[in-house]
Amino acid sequence: MKCKIFSSEAQKNGFCTLHLQAYQNVIEKFDVWREASAILWIDYLVEIQKNSLTGEWAKDVVKHRFKGENGNVK
Ligand SMILES: [Zn+2]
């Protein structure tokens, strides 16, 4: 199973199924966090990177997908 994160051989969405699932979880969780604390997207990304409860799959996605972005892309 290969995807952008571990290989240049990207699939349709750029992520393998497991990473895509992790990515969707990150997006969904952001909505919950935002309702609770009005957190900014970029701050949220920083927080989940620091959070030891965040799965490794999700961390991979965040590191890869949002590297170098300004935080205004969801
Ligand atoms: Zn993957």
Task: Based on the model shown, name its key terms.
55% helix, 3 helices, 74 residues, mainly alpha
The number of helical elements comes to 3
Biggest β-sheet, characterized? Answer: none
Low-pLDDT stretches are none
**Gross morphology:** elongated
What gap, in angstroms, lies between the N and C termini?
A: 25 Å
Strand content: under 5%
Average of the residue pLDDT scores: 78
Helix content: 55-70%
**Bound ligand species:** zinc ion
Give the H and E element order: HHH
**Count of distinct strands:** 0
What Rg do the Cα atoms give?
Answer: 12 Å
Class from secondary-structure proportions: mainly alpha
Layout of SSEs?
Blueprint: H1 17-37, H2 41-50, H3 56-65
Helix pairs in contact: 1-3
This protein binds zinc ion (ZN).
Task: Explain what the structure shows.
The chain has 74 residues and is mostly helical. 55% of the residues lie in helices and 0% in strands. The protein is built from three helices and no strands. The chain has helices spanning 17-37, 41-50, 56-65. The longest helix has 21 residues, at 17-37. The chain starts with 16 loop residues before the first helix and ends in a 9-residue tail after the last helix. It binds zinc ion. Zinc ion binds at residues 3, 5-6, 15-16, 18-19.
